[in-house]
Amino acid sequence: MDSVEKGAATSVSNPRGRPSRGRPPKLQRNSRGGQGRGVEKPPHLAALILARGGSKGIPLKNIKHLAGVPLIGWVLRAALDSGAFQSVWVSTDHDEIENVAKQFGAQVHRRSSEVSKDSSTSLDAIIEFLNYHNVREVTEPLNLNPAKRPRRQDWDGELYENGSFYFAKRHLIEMGYLQGGKMAYYEMRAEHSVDIDVDIDWPIAEQRVLRYGYFGKEKLKEIKLLVCNIDGCLTNGHIYVSGDQKEIISYDVKDAIGISLLKKSGIEVRLISERACSKQTLSSLKLDCKMEVSVSDKLAVVDEWRKEMGLCWKEVAYLGNEVSDEECLKRVGLSGAPADACSTAQKAVGYICKCNGGRGAIREFAEHICLLMEKVNNSCQK
Questions:
Q1: Looking at the predicted structure, is the pLDDT value of residue 7 above 90?
Q2: For 93-137, how does the pLDDT look when each residue is reduced to its tens digit (9 = 90+)?
Q3: Is 14 helix (H, G, I), strand (E, B) or coil?
Q4: Cα separations (Å) of 207 from 38, 79, 220, 276?
């Protein structure tokens, strides 16, 4: 941040909520001190993320899940946790994007249709935001001199502007520029910079974010226990009843392999359900997992298991899909939900599976856990 701040910084004058109708508020540059002398207020640094709903290459790209997290969520989490900004904003014209932004703790500016067209530029959207919130914004690309182009053997490479972020002041934007005056640039490593324009870019971006992505302020700890809800995670929630009143359930072999994968990695797996499931039926699945059914307070049971194993909450993972799983999902170190989980569960987790419950969600979450544990082990070795 130091090199960027030498050029300029993003500033906002006390933005609050959605813009009101009418004329934008005036910028309050000075306040009066005790002796009547003008004292300039410190700048209000704000982050503005542009997220139009009309993406053509990948529809609603900004809220499509990338490695279990909405794409815009990766940006918002890093911006909010950085502590560099007094406020973080999302400029959007779409209700679903607005809802996701608010879930992550950002403020939302509802942009007008005039700056939401296919032909609208980023600068158009930023200027509209300025008109309502008095923001300023700058960046610097490296200017290469073609007259002094080095030999290929002597050339270290090329830098180009990727548009990941800009810091600029208000007066510069009002002149129609995002760059100018005294500038500085931030050189981003190639593995940290990925353009997502078409579907085939998505898996590349997921691989990069799983390896290099920002997962939150607290360091990941090694997971020692996974607790999984039975109905809707291990199974798809369907219950079949035979003519003699016996309960029949089904599960995906991929999920059994996922459980086995975790056990081989030294992670214990336990099953839980608020329903009075048939233990005999569950035992016939031969998953060799400790289980607890007819549970009215899942958090209390998981807490008891945690203490029994001598673990802290950060060493516990939980896969849940119902409202009754919410408190557990919020407490553990690593949380996940199947793609068809209820909205309450999905809002509480850090990873949303592509697979539905009973259709490979456990296997997917198990692979996610193993990837993150590899990252933890690598960081410990360093």
A1: no
A2: 999 999 999 988 999 999 999 988 888 888 888 888 888 876 544
A3: coil
A4: 53, 21, 18, 40
Residues above pLDDT 70, as percent of the chain: 80
Residue type for position 80: L
Distance of CA 309 to the CA centre of its chain: 30
Asked whether residue 266 carries a pLDDT value surpassing 50, the answer given is yes
**Local structure of residue 107 (DSSP, 8 states):** E
Q: Which carries the bigger pLDDT value, residue 56 or residue 316?
A: 316
CA distance 338 to 251: 14
Gap between the Cα atoms of 93 and 111, Å rounded = 5
CA dihedral (194, 199, 200, 204) positive or negative = positive
Closest-CA residue to 335 (of 356, 313, 354, 357): 313
Q: What share of the chain is helix, strand, coil (3-state, %, to 5)?
A: 35, 15, 50
Closest CA to 303 of 323, 330, 283, 276: 330
The DSSP secondary-structure symbol of 11 reads B
Any catalytic annotation for residue 152?
no
Catalytic-labelled residue, pool 149, 170, 331, 359? 149
Determine the straight-line distance between the first and last CA of the chain, rounded to whole angstroms: 25
Q: Which residue has the tokens 């409202």?
A: 323
Which H or E run contains 330? helix 326-331
pLDDT at residue 141 in the model: 35
Question: What is the rounded distance in angstroms from the CA atom of residue 48 to the CA atom of residue 184?
Answer: 19
pLDDT of residue 152 exceeding 50, the answer is yes
What is the C-alpha to C-alpha distance for residues 133 and 125, in angstroms, rounded to an integer? 12
Predicted local distance difference test score (pLDDT) of residue 1: 31
Nearest to 267 by CA among 321, 217, 315: 315
